Amino acid sequence: MIGKWLLAYHRGVREADGDVFKALADPTRRKILDELAERGGQTLFEICSRLAMKHQLGSSRQAISQHLDVLINSGLVTSRREGRYKFHDIDTRPLDRLTDRWKPSENKEL
Amino acid sequence: MRIHVTSVLVSNQEEALRFYSDKLGFVVKNDVPISEAGDRWLTLVSPEDPDGVELLLEPDGHPAAKPFKEALVNDGIPFTSFLVTDVQAEFERLRDLGVRFVQEPASMGPVTTAVLDDTCGNLIQIVHMNQ
């Protein structure tokens, strides 16, 4: 049972890592993270505006919305609703796991 | 041909009048009863430009209006934009009057913008051009 749980757990972690790598592979999504790192709590409109006005990335609202979904699925972005508004924030915690993976560690348990 | 009126669809004309005059600082240009239901032809102008384009506070009673407004607000989209001298100063003035901002001032290339809630179902952008 323990072995099965570990297998399942490890596959889950690896898949989550894959989502993070996939999310980071796209330059527009990295720009979204840059902008959310500069200031949290942005609406979809603010993110679209920043990409268009600061970076000349004139993607459609639908395209940015889909990029945000990828980022949310990877755990790198969270969305929260306050009344009628929806705000987005960056969450860098999934990044920690990525880099730890290849770091030498004497006590690392497999 | 010239542009003389632009509309915001408001959930309540009297509340809208309070917000757009008491908070934003516009002044009434025309206020004419137009229906037995109490709807008015209610337009405001900027005191900086009293002969300029009028803002019509238009009832949002059409069934398509509310879903349209809600979808815009959900994505944080301001349908209407007003020019100000200094977005940061205007943000501070309005915030102190209790106005809710969903986007605080941000410089974006050629413009600085902020987005506020008009309490009548709309988001409004204020903007100035960066020098």
UniProtKB/TrEMBL annotation, chain A:
Pfam families membership: HTH_20
UniProt xrefs under PROSITE patterns: HTH_ARSR_2
GO molecular function annotation: DNA binding; DNA-binding transcription factor activity
Ranges where the HTH arsR-type domain occurs: 9-110
Which SMART domains does UniProt cross-reference here? HTH_ARSR (SM00418)
**UniProt key word Transcription regulation:** yes
Q: Which UniProt keywords apply?
A: DNA-binding, Transcription, Transcription regulation
Q: Which SUPFAM superfamilies match?
A: Winged helix' DNA-binding domain
Write the protein's name. Answer: ArsR family transcriptional regulator
| UniProt organism field | Actinoplanes lutulentus
Q: What is the lineage of its organism?
A: Bacteria, Bacillati, Actinomycetota, Actinomycetes, Micromonosporales
TrEMBL record, chain B:
InterPro entries named in the record: Glyas_Bleomycin-R_OHBP_Dase, Glyas_Fos-R_dOase_dom, VOC_core
Which stretches are transmembrane? Answer: none
Q: Which CDD domains match?
A: VOC_like
Highest taxon above the source species: Bacteria
A GO molecular function term, named singly, is:
lyase activity
The VOC domain covers which part of the protein? 1-129
Q: Which residues form a coiled coil?
A: none
- What keywords sit in the KW lines? Dioxygenase, Lyase, Oxidoreductase
Query: Cross-referenced PANTHER family, in alphabetical order?
Result: GLYOXALASE/BLEOMYCIN RESISTANCE PROTEIN/DIOXYGENASE, GLYOXALASE_BLEOMYCIN RESISTANCE PROTEIN_DIOXYGENASE
- Name of the protein in its database record: Catechol 2,3-dioxygenase-like lactoylglutathione lyase family enzyme
